[in-house]
Structures are given as C-alpha cells and as structure tokens.
Amino acid sequence: MTQTITRRARPSHTPASLARIRARKLTKLLDTWLADESGYDERVWPELKRAIEQNRPSYRKRFRD
Asked: In this predicted structure, what is the pLDDT of residue 10?
C-alpha cells in the first residue's frame, strides 16, 4: 500500500494584494528615509543642485533659490 502525500498549493496573490504589499514596503522605506538624521542630505544637496544647474540643456533654471 502506497501513501500519496499531497501538498496544498500556496494561494496566489491577486494584483490588488500585491499592490498592498508593495505599498506597505514602500511606506516602510519612506519612513526610514524620513527618520534619517545623518545629515547626508544637507551635505550632498547643494553640490547635486549645482551639478544639475550646470548641466541643464536650456537657459531656464531647474530650481528656484
């Protein structure tokens, strides 16, 4: 007598449930970025902004000062 072992298939995620999962992950990531107090953004932004302005393809500025 042979026993057959059957496995239940994992329920597949619907597009809506996948969107909720991605939204939760994104929210968590954004929360960690907002909580960052390392000062990195404040140090890097002026240099990045200057580089963007120097290499702009038109005469108009990208950022208002």
From this structure: 67
Is-contact 56 62, C-beta < 8 A?
A: yes
Q: Which residue has the tokens 């239940």?
A: 8
Closest CA to 48 of 30, 31, 62: 62
Q: How many residues does the chain have?
A: 65
The model's pLDDT over 8-53, given as tens digits with 9 standing for 90+, comes to 766 688 999 999 999 999 999 999 999 999 999 999 999 999 998 8
CB 52 within 8 A of CB 58: no
- Residues 25, 33 contacting (CB under 8 angstroms): no
In 1-65, where does DSSP find H-type helix? 15-35, 40-54
